[in-house]
Amino acid sequence: MGQPSGLKTALVQGWHVLEEAVVSTQSTGIRTWKIVLAGRFGLLEDWCTFVAQHDRRSITRDTWNLLLDFALTISSDLSNYDDEGAWPILIDEFVEWVR
Questions:
Q1: What Å distances lie between residue 32 and 21, 44, 89, 96, CA to CA?
Q2: Contact residues for 63 (Cβ-Cβ < 8 A; gap 6+)
Q3: According to the model, what pLDDT value does residue 56 have?
Q4: Mind spelling out the 3-state secondary structure of the chain?
Q5: Rounded to 10 degrees, what is the CA torsion of 76, 81, 45, 68?
Q6: Residue 53: CB partners within 8 Å, gap ≥ 6?
Q7: 58 forms bridges with which residues in the sheet?
Q8: What Rg, from alpha-carbon coordinates, does the chain have?
Q9: In the predicted model, is pLDDT for residue 21 greater than 60?
Q10: How many angstroms separate the CA atoms of 44 and 77, rounded?
Q11: Is the model's pLDDT at 23 over the cut of 50?
């Protein structure tokens, strides 16, 4: 699971498990991200704080599936973030919050 493609597959499969168990909640997402993305996402603590503060009762599949891509391609200073990119709304709102 060290390779990003394997990690991506694991996260997508994790969504399906969570979705079936009806626990794709904010708190479950935060706990999962802290385990899976530790050391891979420079803004992980900021992301988790943002999600916790913004009353998201559930995490959309789109956000779940694309957060790893965001974590691996966007620099921690967000200098290469494209405001016109096709990121999920929650990620766009996070970038605005950080900036």
A1: 15, 11, 20, 23
A2: 88, 90, 91
A3: 64
A4: CCCHHHHHHHHHHHHHHHHHCCCCEHHHHHHHHHHHCCCCCCCHHHHHHHHHHCCCCECCHHHHHHHHHHHHHCCCCCCCCCCCCCCCHHHHHHHHHHC
A5: -100
A6: none
A7: 25
A8: 13
A9: no
A10: 13
A11: no
- Comparison of pLDDT for 65 and 40, the residue scoring more: 40
CB contact at 8 A, 41 and 7:
no
pLDDT, one tens digit per residue, over 50-93 is: 999 986 677 887 888 899 999 999 999 999 999 999 999 999 99
Q: 4, 18, 6: which is closest to 64 by C-alpha?
A: 18
Q: State the angle between helix axes of 4-20 and 61-73 in degrees (0 to 180), rounded to the nearest 10.
A: 160
